[in-house]
Design goal:
The complex is a heterodimer of chains A (171) and B (105). With 171 residues, chain A is mainly alpha-helical. Chain A contains seven helices and no strands. The model of chain A has no long low-confidence stretch (mean pLDDT 90). The mean pLDDT of chain B is 90. The chains are: A mainly alpha (171), B mainly alpha (105). Chain B: NDH-1 is composed of 14 different subunits. Subunits NuoA, H, J, K, L, M, N constitute the membrane sector of the complex.
């Protein structure tokens, strides 16, 4: 195994173990903090896979913004800080069975389908800010503009949803 | 490195996200499961981009777009979660039954 492969395997292990902790820990806040570890490890995987700009966007938006939003939501819904035994449904075995089925089916299909394809990272073009900017603003301008409209719509929607209380007047 | 390594990683993360969505009772924790699933998709996109050396960099660009859509989704979803908390006083998904189908026998 080369050094790149060792780094990839280590990052994958960190990501999978911390993701398991995200969905199983009985502490609400710990769950959000383990999510930070998972997303950071995934950013490292992006770096290994020659997607530099995507990795930094991942760190900025996911680790920076999304996790802070989640922590704020936990805080505003008065999440208790101690361990809570009823965070997971009582009959978790069917859920685990479905997840296992998804993993086996998807994993078997993907591994069987792409067994022979090699990922040659030495000759891959690194997706730096220059390369990514050029592709986004030359080839993908129209989807980019549509996305900006989507973001505006989401912004307006969030504001409308947060202002609903003042019109009800009952609480 | 073989291409199926990152594909297997993304499969595992996706399955863990599915488990989180199905098994968690708190609405915010369900949203964390959704985030895990979206990230698994991003790993797939980036891995295929690197493997097939796309000249348009479609994989990385679509991964960026997915991140933007996920940010919009989480903003709206948390606004809805806070609204549910204001109306009901809790965000326990097992106890939110006002949209349930009561005609079912």
């Amino acid at each position: 195994m080369t050094a790149v492969q060792v780094v990839f395997v280590l990052l994958s292990l960190v990501a999978v173990v911390s993701a398991l902790l995200v969905v199983t820990t009985p502490h609400l806040v710990h769950s959000a903090l383990w999510l930070v570890v998972t997303l950071g490890a995934i950013a490292g995987v992006f770096l290994v896979l020659a997607a530099e700009f995507v990795a930094w966007v991942q760190v900025l938006i996911y680790v920076g913004a999304v996790v802070v939003l989640l922590l704020f939501a936990l805080m505003l819904t008065r999440a208790p800080t101690g361990p809570q035994p009823d965070l997971t449904v009582r009959r978790w075995a069917p859920a685990a069975f479905v997840a296992l089925l998804v993993a086996v089916l998807l994993g078997a299909t993907l591994v069987a389908g792409f067994q022979d394809v090699r990922l040659d990272l030495d000759q891959a073009v690194v997706g730096s800010a220059e390369v990514t900017g050029e592709t986004v603003f030359r080839r993908w301008v129209l989807p980019f503009e549509v996305l900006s409209v989507l973001l505006l719509a989401a912004l307006v929607g969030a504001i409308v949803l947060s202002r609903l209380r003042s019109e009800d007047g009952d609480d | 490195m073989p291409l199926w390594w990152p594909l297997l990683l993304s499969t595992l993360l996706f399955a863990i996200g599915v488990y989180g969505v199905l098994a968690r009772r708190n609405a915010v924790l369900v949203l964390m499961g959704v985030e895990l699933m979206l990230n698994a998709v991003n790993i797939n996109l980036v891995a295929f981009d690197a493997a097939f050396r796309d000249v348009l960099h479609g994989g990385q660009t679509l991964a960026l777009f997915t991140i933007v859509i996920a940010a919009a989704e989480i903003g709206l979803a948390l606004a809805i979660v806070l609204l549910v908390f204001r109306h009901h006083g809790h965000i326990d998904l097992d106890r939110l039954r006002s949209l349930a189908d009561r005609d079912a026998s």
